[in-house]
Design goal:
Layout: H1 9-12, H2 14-52, H3 60-74, E1 79-81, E2 84-86, H4 91-111, H5 117-141, E3 146-147, H6 150-169, H7 175-182, H8 185-215, H9 217-227, H10 231-243, H11 245-257, E4 261-263, E5 266-269, E6 272-274, H12 301-314, H13 321-346, E7 348-349, E8 357-359, H14 362-384, H15 388-402, H16 413-425, E9 431-433, E10 439-441
Helix pairs in contact: 2-3, 2-4, 2-10, 4-5, 4-6, 5-6, 8-11, 8-12, 8-13, 11-13, 12-14, 13-14
Length: about 500
């Protein structure tokens, strides 16, 4: 009779029940900490503005109350201030909050040993629903000069938290691996190239913004001088400009792509400018108020550089020309969708005055991005051909993998294989530790993966760069991959960290 047969079921099942309870306690602590941190960030920014403003009186209670709509603004919820719409909100605090949510979700997944995609969905859903209901509750209780629509608050807060939480656990819980399993090699390569294109176009927008700051430095100083004579007013204006820097980067890419932007009656494009009034802020002093100069057309070379970069990277995609062109098409679509989303959240309404709506023309920008990325990249891929050095290196690596292992002394492959089998049989099951401090023996299953063969918890399973080509292409040996859906990570004692 086994030793476990004499243990009552209530005692034997106790550690696993406590383990599930601790997982939910970890999730509750993480969600509460993220909510509190976001509220404190909003309160800190409002307190800084009120403390440094020359004509404002600092009131701690007013700061705590004003932090409620500030928390909604961090999650891109449209507000109304005395019936004037305000939906163009800074992206920098939103990015920081999303990083915080992603880090908290990754911490919960690591401490709870979540490894499979089905284990990640409850965490992502809980994080998104809690933020959605908190945002809707804040919108309901707001009754004053600042208010919000509860449905908008529910959707925006929940969507921001869901995206951030999914990004935080995507690699550890195998969501990226799940996508890799279900797409073709060229589609996976196109997704990676699309992320490269997004990073390149953000860099191009940053270059345009930096050039505008260097050329418009005197106008920015004059705008600061007009705002007030105290240092507090200058600090508040500078802080607002810093918070809206990501919005300005997206506007820089919109200007470089040729679609431009508009603030009320002001329209700015590389080849055309329609003058109009703008708010007197240092960041908006970058916008020209006169006809465009001929040398502004040089910014149109930045999107061309982005397309050439994607095309150069697409030459390393294995397979035929059609597969590389398909990867380029997927990359262009990903870049277009990314710019569509960024341009949509980067613009919005700015009151009912003469400034009206600030728009980055998301649909036109997405179409222009699609063309700027797809056409140059396809031309480079078509004319330059594949990267022969990369193909040769891959062929040599495949030939080395296909060669049978040989023993150094005898040169007999069977001896090395027998030695490997002997080493595997001598490996024992290690003792593991749960998050609640209980220790248990690893299951003595022959099909279970060896604990010594697993990586540390802080290291996610390696995702290959691309699949192998189809059967019509020359067959190559595919290296063995660890499938994260086969185990939940409860095999090593490294989870105690």
């Amino acid at each position: 009779m086994s030793v476990l047969d004499s243990i009552p079921h209530a005692i034997a099942d106790g550690p696993r029940e406590r383990r599930h309870g601790i997982r939910w306690w970890l999730l509750a602590v993480a969600v509460g900490a993220v909510l509190l941190a976001g509220y404190l960030v909003a309160a800190g920014l409002i307190a800084l503005v009120m403390a440094t403003a020359g004509s404002a009186q600092f009131d701690p209670l007013a700061v705590l109350v004003a932090a409620l709509p500030g928390w909604l603004a961090l999650h891109q919820t449209a507000l109304k201030i005395t019936d004037a719409p305000l939906s163009i909100l800074p992206l920098l605090p939103t990015a920081l909050v999303m990083l915080l949510i992603a880090a908290a979700s990754a911490w919960v997944a690591r401490r709870s040993r979540l490894r499979r995609p089905d284990q990640a969905w409850p965490l992502i859903t809980a994080m998104g629903l809690v933020h959605a209901f908190v945002g809707a509750a804040i919108a309901v209780v707001l009754d004053g000069p600042v208010n919000a629509v509860p449905v908008d608050a529910f959707l925006s807060c929940g969507l921001v938290a869901t995206i951030a939480s999914a990004a935080g656990v995507a690699n550890r819980c195998g969501l990226i691996y799940l996508v890799w399993e279900r797409v073709e090699a060229e589609v996976w390569s196109g997704l990676r190239l699309g992320l490269l294109a997004l990073a390149a176009l953000v860099a191009a927008g940053g270059v345009v913004l930096l050039a505008g700051i260097c050329l418009s430095a005197p106008e920015m100083v004059a705008a600061l001088a007009r705002l007030g004579s105290t240092a507090g007013d200058a600090i508040g204006a500078t802080l607002s400009s810093l918070l809206y820097l990501p919005n300005a980067v997206v506007a820089g890419w919109s200007f470089a792509a040729g679609t431009g932007l508009s603030i009320g009656r002001l329209e700015v494009q590389p080849l055309h400018v329609a003058p109009g009034p703008v708010p007197d802020l240092p960041l908006l002093a970058l916008l020209p108020t006169h006809d465009s100069a001929a040398w502004w057309a040089i910014v149109l070379g930045l999107p061309l550089v982005v397309g050439l970069l994607v095309g150069t990277a697409a030459r390393r995609v294995p397979g035929s020309l059609a597969r590389r062109l398909l990867a380029v098409g997927v990359a262009a679509a990903v870049a277009a969708m990314g710019t569509l989303l960024l341009a949509h959240v980067g613009g919005g309404d700015l009151g009912n005055g003469p400034f009206g709506q600030v728009t980055l023309r998301p649909v036109a920008l997405a179409a222009a991005t699609l063309c700027w990325v797809a056409i140059p990249a396809a031309a480079v891929t078509w004319l330059a051909g594949p990267d022969l050095d990369d193909e040769l290196g891959a062929d040599q690596a495949d030939a080395a993998d296909e060669a049978p292992p040989k023993d150094d002394a005898t040169g007999d492959p069977s001896d090395a294989a027998a030695s490997d089998v002997a080493d595997d049989t001598e490996t024992g099951a290690d003792e593991t530790t749960d998050v609640d401090g209980d220790r248990a023996d690893a299951p003595a299953d022959d099909n279970a993966p060896d604990a010594d063969a697993l990586e540390l918890d802080d290291l996610a399973p390696e995702i290959p760069h691309a699949r192998e080509a189809a059967e019509s292409e020359p067959s190559r040996s595919k290296p063995a991959e660890i499938d994260p859906t086969e185990f939940d990570g409860d095999l090593t004692g490294d989870d105690r960290r």
